[in-house]
Each structure stands twice: as C-alpha cells, then as structure tokens.
Amino acid sequence: MPADYSSFGLKDKIAIVTGASQGIGRSIAIGLAQAGAHLVLAKHPDGRRSEISDVKREIEDLGRRAEIVLTDVSKVDDLRVLMNKTEAAFGRLDILVNNACWTGNSMALDVDEDEYDRTMDSALKSVFFACQAAARIMIPQGSGKIINIGSNFGVVAFKSRSVYAAAKAGVHHLSRALSLEWANQGVSVNVVAPCITETATRKIILERPGYKEWATTQMLPAGRWNQPDDLVGAVLFLSSHLSDMVVGHTLMVDGGWTIH
What we know:
- The protein is an alpha/beta fold.
- It has a single domain (10-199, 228-252), classed as 3-Layer(aba) Sandwich (Rossmann fold), CATH 3.40.50.720.
- 43% of the residues lie in helices and 15% in strands.
- It is built from 8 helices and 7 strands.
- It has helices at residues 23-34, 49-61, 76-90, 113-141, 162-182, 203-206, 211-219, 232-239, and strands at residues 14-18, 38-43, 66-70, 95-98, 144-149, 187-194, 250-253.
- Strands 3-2-1-4-5-6-7 form a 7-stranded parallel sheet, sandwiched between helices.
- Helix 2 (49-61) links the parallel strand 2 and strand 3.
- Helix 1 packs parallel to helix 2.
- It is globular.
- The protein starts with 13 loop residues before the first strand and ends in a 7-residue tail after the last strand.
- The model has no long low-confidence stretch (mean pLDDT 95).
C-alpha cells in the first residue's frame, strides 16, 4: 500500500529528480509522487532504460504524471533542455532535487585529470547549472524549492574520496550562497546529506571484508547505514511549506556519523 504523505501539501506540485532510475533518486521520485507531486525523471542517456520506465509506470500507477527526459547532468545544454521541457509540459516547476552524481574511488595520489573532471562535473558543476536553470523558472513564479543531495563526506574526510568530498563540500556551501541570493525571491536551496547508502552502485564498497562491522559499530551511532527510503522524509520536508523558514541548511541524514 502506498505511503500516505499527503500532509506535506505537495498535491499537484511539479518536481524534477535527477538520477531517478535507481537508488536514492528512485526512492525520492516515488516518495514525491506518493505525496501528490507530478514528476519529471531525469536520467543519463546511457543504460537503465527499462529501470526508468519502471519508475515512470509506478508513479503513473499512483495517479500522477511522469515524464522521462534523458539528461547528462554534466552538460549545461542538457540541463537547460531539461528545464525547458519541464516548463513546456507542466507550465511551472516547484521542486528540483539534484541527486545525480558520479565519483571515482582513487587515492589522492592516483587521481588523474579525467577522474577529477568527471567527478567535479557530475557532482558540483551540474548542481550549479541545474539550480541556475531552475531558478530562472522559479523566481518569476515567486516560489520554488531546490534540494541538493550532499554527503557526510562533505563534512568529514574519507580516504579515496578526496575529490568527491571537495565537490560535496562545495554543494553544501553553494546551497548557502544561492539561498542568500534567492530566498527573498521565494526560492530556497537546502541540502540533504546522507552517509553511505545501500544501493547497487555502492554494493562493491559495502561488501568489502570488515567494512560493515567497522562502519556500523564505530562510525554510525544508529547502528546501520542508510537505505534509499531513509532520505525520502527529509526531501519531502524541504520540498514542502513546512520548511519555508529553512534556508541554506544542510540536513544530515547520516545515522550520526558526523557527531563524532
């Protein structure tokens, strides 16, 4: 039975979720639909075509509209097309969730220029230009909610994630800076920052010998790491009128990792 998120007041809101085919993005997109929103599902042109179609079908089964827009978030022109197609299809944009990201896992001495650029382009550059393109729709409306998916590694350091950590720290501070410019025009920008989350793309990390025991006993007071659905409530709150005075904030959803 679908979750009842009607109290968030998102009925008939228009939301974009990037990286919506699996993992965190999929859970957020479905959660927004369960709260009453219609979705634009942004997905990289490569792979997972059947998965994004399944997400679209699940949202439509809830009685919501869902459109798929193939988008390479590292390309500014693609992001502008995404916003233009959303406005053409729905006439407005109320919520943007910047979730799509890529990162390598090299130790700092082994990072090459390609890994650096690919990480920064997908994790930070894409967030800035998606926010900019969305704000050009939201500011004339006088309202909009932008939620950027950050990371606890944007707050604490972690080996083999130096470039990713720098990019996510940039996302956190960028969101504060954009809120400073846009909040008085009705557009708030906030961050949801998870710890490592159990998704298909993180499976190889989670299955390293001893990793689960180390993370859950030493780093996570909650005693477990995130499941994708753990992010949904935070995103719905920051998407809703309930968070109207939450501006430029980073909401940690990290099981307590960063309280050490």
